[in-house]
Amino acid sequence: MTRRVVITGLGLITSLGQEVEGFWKRLLAGESGVSRIESFDPSRYSVRIAGEIKDFNPEAWLDKRVARHMDRFAQMAVASAVQAVKDAGLDLAKEDPFRVGAIVGSGIGGLKELEEQHTRLLEKGPMRVSPFMVPKLMINAAAGQISILYGIKGPNAGVANACASANNAIGQALWTIELDEADVMIAGGSEAALTPMGLAGFCSARALSTRNDEPARASRPFDRDRDGFVLSEGAGIVVLEEYEHARARGARVYAEFIGFGMSGDGCHIVQPDPEGRGAAAAMSQMLKDGRAEAGSVDYINAHGTGTPLGDVSETKAIKTVFGEHARRLAISSTKSSVGHLLGASGGVELIATVLAIRDQVAPPTINLDEPDPECDLDYVPLVPRPMKIRRAASNSFGFGGHNASLLIQKI
Fold it and tell me: What is the pTM of this model?
């Protein structure tokens, strides 16, 4: 019999809040975390807005000397993990360290460190490049630093699947517990690609919204006037546990994690399959893995980036998988409020989905003033909706054609 897996801890760092309840309150209030960039001068860029975290202090969660040897993306991952472990009420010193692991995704990893050391290389020469460069920029540094912090020695990995990274990491953690390779897994994603080079690359790709004069209204998933996504940074981490392990220690359980599906588009390196076939395959596999009927799902936290092609593709995929039930689903994009955290987005969005089940309310898609006729499903426009939510899904789709979908349910 497959071991049951539950979610017992949540932690995040976002531009909309650096702790879970504050983030959730602002999300339901329809607030935006998007603003003008302040960490560097964006005046020469076509895009000057982002979901920037302006007051993140890693020393609130980490020893100063330890934090100094981490890139920003790893700092945010560890900060979120500390929150999640505390929220779960776990004393990891009392756990078998070989039965606790960490899997954390990132699409890009330590881009800030890479840029800083490249500048040092050009200005001061190769002997002045930091010996900590590689350990700081590598994508697996986030999971590695979490394992070092807690002394956990179970399954440990970094996942790099672009914007699907966090969902893939969380799904792999689900399988790890189901296969009895661990009892507790710390999983999610982190991203800190809001740097001069990161922003330049996305600007050149023409992937971002250029609504610079009204940043809070720039992220507009499924809206007729959407013009691209808003680049954001942050992290989202959850604690997964085997159900009997959680019950034995009297843990508070948020939801049961029942299904994971992933697929590839096999279509284009940045554009989604226009018919949404890859995304549909991931959602179908998610339902199969969770032994769930399509009609049993009440809410979907959509990938919903606000790109002209992506939102239409996801709409088609949902229709393919859910048929007539698609029109009865409540669907929303929390990226409308927090922007697109790339490889971290799935972690933050799963947390929003968990809280939607906890509080029985679907968060809104803000800025959805005039729906695109091709995006004709119920996207919970503008205001949250109290409703019965027993089962809910969360989608993440990434460059490279990577698709990953998660299914959770009320317990």
Answer: 0.98
